[in-house]
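User: Show me sequence and structure for the first protein, then do the same for the second.

Assistant: Starting with the first protein.
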Amino acid sequence: MLDSIRILTDVPASSDAHVARADLDAARQRRSLQQQAQRRARECVEQAQSEAQAIRAQAFQEGYANGILRAAENLANGLLESQTLGLQLRKDLAQAARQLLQELLTRVEWLDEMLERWLTERSDTGAPLQVVLPARCKPQGQALRLRLQGLWPGALVLDYQPEERYVFRLSDQLLEFDIESVCQRLEPQLLARLGNLPESVRCLDQASMMRLGELCSGFGTNSVGGVE
């Protein structure tokens, strides 16, 4: 279209030519239109380049942001899973500590030692010693009676109950030993002492290390593809 516009230089050069004022004005107008068209074309090209650059920058930023979001999501999921594993580990550890205490407190040796200490402070051998044991001890009733008679020379009354509790009564003196209550009281103390264990005992085993490695292996890997 621009090539079809006549400009001032298109007018034939001739000394005899008579250029009317209207032709000069038309040539100037065509020249101005051509300059405006060229300027507008440059502006359109510059605007297109600027928009293309802005689009590329926005795409880069969006890809980078998406990569960060994916990495953060992976990290959050991993931390949540590791926290869940930690809670489960503490739960299992507390259960193991509780079972250990129950096993220790239900041993016959513990009963002998506890009763012997209590009887050393009692001198009324004329009164009968009443003993109430958990029902699970009933199959060993005869053996327990012999052991108790070795600790107490006086009369002995042996009975059983369904609760996990030992009850000793001598005259107006009473001793009760509730295994569950004692376990609940001693469990936090036992768990608190785990920090004093040797380093080798508190280290993770190979399976736990592999599991943690799997959790951390995905952190940020998906974000690499989102930023180019």
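Switching to the second protein now.
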Amino acid sequence: MNLIETFPPDTLLRVACCSEANFSSWADPRGSEVEVARILYPAPRTAHHESIGGIFHAGNRYYLQCLEGPVEHLAWYLEHLEQDDRHQRVEVIHREAIQSQRFPPGSMRYVGSHKELQAIQTRHGLSTFDPYTFTPEALADFIDLAFDRPSDPAALMGVHRD
């Protein structure tokens, strides 16, 4: 899905995407947690990163991200995510034009404890964390997790709160 062909230049967007961890032959023998940590480790910052804000959750080999920012920067981010060999099956599950960003530009915050995600799954008839099966309503509940508690600087840029 090419965002640049779908939305006019400079359009602010909210995009939700999911991917699956690609634990291949190069995976660390100490276990999947080390590989997950590699994916969550902050990447070198670019102007694109500074324009995008969002939230994410990792669990059960899956990653769910909700990102906001200018269409050009989100298109760049998604292209790089698709090329990242640590991820497979990258899929945009939601996209919409927005008037303003709810997430601070330049930040990516981990949200959702195991208990919080289980509550969303139960409420929406989902048995496990699999973002490919999230409905728009489940995604809205996921986004609300970012605003249900005070901001915690330790939750920014991949530091887990669980």
